[in-house]
Amino acid sequence: MNFKGIHVVSVRDFSRKDIEHILNLADTFIPIARGESSSTLMNGKIMATLFFEPSTRTRLSFESAMQRLGGRVLGFADPGGTSAKKGETLADTIRMAAAYSDLIVLRHPQEGAARLASKFSNVPVINAGDGAGQHPTQTLLDLQTIRQEAGKIDGKKIALVGDLKYGRTVHSLAYALAMFDTELTFVAPPTLQMPKEMIETVSQMGAKPKLVNSVEEVIAEADVIYVTRIQKERFPDPAEYRKVAEVYKITPEILEDAKKKMIVMHPLPRVKEISPEVDDTDYAAYFKQAFYGVPARMALISLITGVVE
Ligand code: NCD
Question: d(Cα 249, Cα 274) in Å, to the nearest integer?
Fold first, then answer.
């Protein structure tokens, strides 16, 4: 596909071939992402980061990606200081950002916000998380992590664990993994299982996801365990949250049954789902995963601004 000028709202906007093209390019950006070599690729370009919801990695890695490629960044991390506070609509905020930049990165608490924003923007909009919807650029870095840290994606047994109902990273990732030849297991308490329509879609795409309740059921077989935070802020009822908070915890004891080369991933932030003792084991891939956010986003922004084909 020709990436120049496209909006990136869902991972389903891409084919497997498109994703592989982005990831191959991302691999070549790793030395620049590490600061080992420099680049002027994005000289003269401006990226707007509009974050209506908290973020550490997504915003900083987008900004690092742009700046390391020689581009510039403007935007906000807290809408409290913007005209949204005065009642400005998202559509108008987007029109303004489009007038001041070449590319908009948007995070918003409402599902569908990025799709809406794309209708009002004459520059590309990238969805950096829309409520419990999608998080396509997280998926790019997740896939790059699997390729780099587990060798390849095809043939892998991958378990998505935790809050599969509200977690947008696993929504996007499940779609993408279904484009590859993977064995998927969805590990969640029944109330937080993957939404039905998503299970149906990935099944139509050829995946046959297994649904289970406990990590113990998958730990011995899995090549990748992708752990997620229970999305406290998306529960309508705090009592419902308390029932499922801390249901899963990856500990060194649980990992005793894992394959030697298995990797543990997490989009972060973690709360208590992975005990800190796991950090120093060879299983821990989550901090490396966060780093891959830079090269993966470098690849995407350079393609959609048209500086690379
Ligand atoms: C995730 C998100 O915002 O969806 N974080 C991220 O982008 N790395 C995961 C989360 O908040 O639990």
Answer: 5
